[in-house]
């Protein structure tokens, strides 16, 4: 029995030191290899595994980065004009454009195939996805609709990515980036602030809280930490798991100079 | 009938072309408020002036990227701030990678991918205070000859003047001819 406890304590000691060592690795002034990061919905660059995707104004370019410092282009899909953003989610790539959203199958990361193009009205752009729903902000004032200032937040059912379906649309002011996590959807409204929507019912985003003073452009919600950039600076908030708790705590703000 | 066609064709042409005329709004387009965006140009040599500099204040923050405890923040048109975000209540600004014409970024492991005008760059960020440029792929990304904003008037970019690396908002006496 004694032998057994000694062995156990030895084991826990090893585990503890391993843990500590990992923590050290993370906090020191070095970046650990092979870790993938997270971008915001405004991104034109995205990485999944060993593939780097870049959307240019008119194409989706695919680079192999197995050798990280020597990207080699594997494929190029020519798309229409006005491509703005890319959001990889599970087996698909969601590409936001001025006139809609392209959905690619990504099972072969280096040879994505176009499944569908969702076109609502002449407008744009960024898109985020959670489970079977894509949230797209459409900012009025583009192309044919340039003097019609109709901005909106659309919910699109992408359970069949070859056949996306609009299921909800509501007006917005001047939406830019957006981010989704659990029952919360964060929408940047440019100089009009940051909006938090309750998506307990994912098909019906309901405005939960508005932060008019937080000018916002791009946003990343991840592990209860919300990072927002805008023309006044960089804000970070801690948010709770459940939107009903109503907890959004400002952790820090780096103002612009 | 012929007369009808003669009258309808110009109308159709007008309708079709007006839709694709991204650069010139209709007469009843959005009002010009006396401001617009002007392109900032760099020569091919200036474009390659890429370096790691000491941390600097945020001015015009754009897109963000998170990797572990690090936070990468684009400074529109000029480069990337690297922050240690181990404690999000006190983020520490570590360094600034000066990259003319930069708006986009992605990071994997110790490698940072960023645009430098039309070029794609790869940096080694193993030491965020001493970022090393490892690779430049020339002309990988066709230029976006418009500002990263919408509903704005801007001076049309003129490739003869150089490579567009950024846009500044200025007051303008007359309405510039480009719009998006």
From TrEMBL, chain A:
InterPro entries: LVIVD
Signal sequence region: 1-28
Alphabetized UniProt keyword annotations: Signal
Statement: the UniProt record of this protein carries the keyword Signal: yes
Pfam families: LVIVD (PF08309)
KW Signal (keyword) present: yes
Highest taxon in the source lineage: Bacteria
Name this polypeptide is given: LVIVD repeat-containing protein
Taxon lineage: Bacteria, Pseudomonadati, Bacteroidota, Cytophagia, Cytophagales
UniProtKB/TrEMBL annotation, chain B:
Organism domain of life: Bacteria
Lineage: Bacteria, Pseudomonadati, Bacteroidota, Cytophagia, Cytophagales
Name of protein: LVIVD repeat-containing protein
Pfam families in the record: LVIVD
């Amino acid at each position: 029995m004694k032998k057994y406890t000694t062995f156990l304590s030895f084991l826990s000691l090893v585990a503890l030191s391993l843990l500590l060592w990992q923590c050290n690795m993370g906090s020191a002034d070095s970046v650990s290899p092979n870790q993938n990061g997270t971008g915001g919905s405004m991104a034109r660059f995205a990485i999944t595994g060993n593939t780097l995707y870049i959307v240019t104004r008119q194409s989706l370019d695919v680079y192999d980065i197995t050798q990280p410092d020597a990207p080699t282009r594997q494929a190029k899909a020519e798309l229409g004009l006005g491509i703005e953003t890319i959001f990889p989610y599970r087996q698909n790539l969601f590409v936001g454009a001025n006139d809609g959203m392209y959905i690619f199958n990504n099972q072969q990361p280096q040879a994505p195939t176009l499944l569908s193009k969702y076109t609502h009205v002449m407008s744009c752009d960024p898109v985020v996805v959670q489970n079977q729903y894509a949230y797209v902000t459409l900012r009025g004032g583009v192309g044919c609709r340039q003097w019609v200032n109709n901005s909106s937040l659309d919910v699109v059912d992408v359970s069949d990515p070859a056949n996306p379906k609009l299921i909800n649309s509501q007006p917005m002011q001047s939406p830019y980036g957006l981010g989704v996590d659990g029952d919360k959807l964060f929408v940047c409204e440019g100089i009009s602030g940051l909006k938090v929507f309750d998506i307990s019912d994912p098909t019906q985003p309901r405005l939960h809280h508005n932060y008019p003073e937080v000018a916002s452009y791009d946003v990343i919600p991840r592990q209860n930490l919300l990072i927002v950039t805008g023309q006044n600076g960089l804000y970070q908030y801690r948010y709770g798991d459940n939107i009903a708790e109503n907890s959004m705590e400002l952790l820090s703000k780096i103002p612009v100079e | 009938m012929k007369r009808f066609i003669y009258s309808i064709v110009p109308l159709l042409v007008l309708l079709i072309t007006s839709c694709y005329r991204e650069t010139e709004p209709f007469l009843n387009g959005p009002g010009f408020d006396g401001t617009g965006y002007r392109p900032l140009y760099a020569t091919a040599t200036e474009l390659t002036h890429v370096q790691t500099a000491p941390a600097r204040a945020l001015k015009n923050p754009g897109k963000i990227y998170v990797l572990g405890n690090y936070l990468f923040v684009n400074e529109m048109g000029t480069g990337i701030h690297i922050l240690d975000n181990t404690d999000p209540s006190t983020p520490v600004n570590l360094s600034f990678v000066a990259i003319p014409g930069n708006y986009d970024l992605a990071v994997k492991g110790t490698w940072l991918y960023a645009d430098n005008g039309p070029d794609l760059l790869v940096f080694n960020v193993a030491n965020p205070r001493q970022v090393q440029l490892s690779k430049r792929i020339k002309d990988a990304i066709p230029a976006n000859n418009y500002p990263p904003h919408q509903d704005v008037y801007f001076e049309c970019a003129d490739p003869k003047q150089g490579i567009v690396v950024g846009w500044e908002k200025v007051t303008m006496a007359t309405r510039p001819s480009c719009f998006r």
